[in-house]
Design a protein that fits this description.
This protein is an alpha/beta fold. The chain has 10 helices and 8 strands. The chain has a single domain, classed as Spore Coat Polysaccharide Biosynthesis Protein SpsA, Chain A (Alpha-Beta Complex). The chain has a 5-stranded mixed beta sheet with strand order 3-2-1-4-7, with helices on both faces. The protein starts with a strand and ends with a helix. The model has no long low-confidence stretch (mean pLDDT about 95). Keywords: Cell membrane, Glycosyltransferase, Membrane, Transferase. This is TIGR04283 family arsenosugar biosynthesis glycosyltransferase. InterPro entries: Glyco_trans_2-like, Nucleotide-diphossugar_trans, Trfase_2_rSAM/seldom_assoc. It is found in: Cell membrane.
Length: about 230
C-alpha cells in the first residue's frame, strides 16, 4: 500500500523558519506515512525554490493568501489524506503514529494537534490551554494546530476559501465539531507574535477578531482591521 498522506505547508518568505518543521516530518516519511510534501508558496523571494528542491518537496505557486495557497496545493494532490501545517508548527516526536491511529480509528473525521508554544512563559501555557479547550468544545482549531483531513471530507466541504483572514475557522465551521477529533500528539508553534505584541494584547486581538467574524463581519473588513494594528 502506498503512503496515504500529503503534507502541505503555506509559505511567504518563510524559508529561514522551515527547518524544524521539515526535520520533524522526516519521521512520517520513514514510517511510510507521508507520500509527498507540498510547499504552497504565495510569492516568496527568499530562495524557496532551492529549499523545496533540496528536501524533495513539490512547489506549488498561487496568488498570495493562505486559503488560496492551501487550496491550490490541495487540488494538485491525489492522496486520501491531507495534513496542513504552518511553516513554524512542529509536530512532536511520535506524531506519525498518532496520525496513523487517527486514520484507522476515525477514518471519516478531521483531526488537530494539541497546541504548545515554544515559550516557558505562564501565559504560553494559558493561551495554549484555551486553544485546546476551544478546539475540543467548539470544534474550532486554528491553523497553527495543524489540520488532518480525509480528502473526501475536504472535497465535500469545499476546502479552504480564498479569503484574506479566518480561512481556518471557515473550514472548521464547514466540517463541524462532530466530524473532528483531537490527534493524540502535540504540535509546538512559534510564540513570536505573542512575545512581540504581548500575550494579553495578542490574545484579546485574536478573540475579538473571532467574535466579530461570528457576528457576520466580512473577512475582508477583518483583514483591514487586523493590518491597521
Amino acid at each position: 500500500m502506498s503512503a496515504p498522506l500529503t503534507v502541505i505547508i503555506p509559505t511567504i518568505d518563510a524559508a529561514d523558519r522551515l527547518s524544524p518543521t521539515l526535520a520533524a516530518l522526516t519521521e512520517g516519511v520513514v514510517d511510510g506515512l507521508v507520500r509527498e510534501l507540498v510547499i504552497a508558496d504565495g510569492g516568496s523571494t527568499d530562495g524557496i525554490e532551492a529549499l523545496a528542491e533540496g528536501v524533495g518537496a513539490r512547489l506549488v505557486r498561487a496568488p498570495r493568501g493562505r486559503g488560496t495557497q492551501l487550496h491550490a496545493a490541495a487540488r494538485s494532490t491525489e492522496t486520501p489524506w491531507l495534513l496542513f501545517l504552518h511553516a513554524d508548527t512542529v509536530p512532536a516526536p511520535g506524531w506519525s503514529a498518532a496520525v496513523a491511529a487517527h486514520m484507522a480509528l476515525e477514518p471519516d473525521k478531521a483531526g488537530w494537534f494539541r497546541l504548545a508554544f515554544d515559550s516557558s512563559a505562564t501565559m504560553a501555557r494559558v493561551t495554549a490551554g484555551w486553544a485546546n479547550l476551544r478546539s475540543r468544545v467548539f470544534g474550532l482549531p486554528y491553523g497553527d494546530q495543524g489540520l488532518l483531513i480525509p480528502r473526501a471530507l475536504y472535497d465535500e466541504t469545499g476546502g479552504y476559501r480564498s479569503i484574506p483572514l479566518m480561512e481556518d475557522v471557515a473550514l472548521a465551521r464547514a466540517i463541524g465539531r462532530r466530524r473532528m477529533a483531537a490527534i493524540e500528539a502535540v504540535a509546538t508553534t512559534s510564540a513570536g507574535r505573542f512575545v512581540a505584541e504581548g500575550w494579553f494584547r495578542r490574545g484579546w486581538r485574536n478573540l475579538t477578531t473571532l467574535a466579530l467574524y461570528f457576528a457576520g463581519v466580512s473577512p475582508e473588513r477583518l483583514a483591514r482591521r487586523y493590518e491597521r494594528r
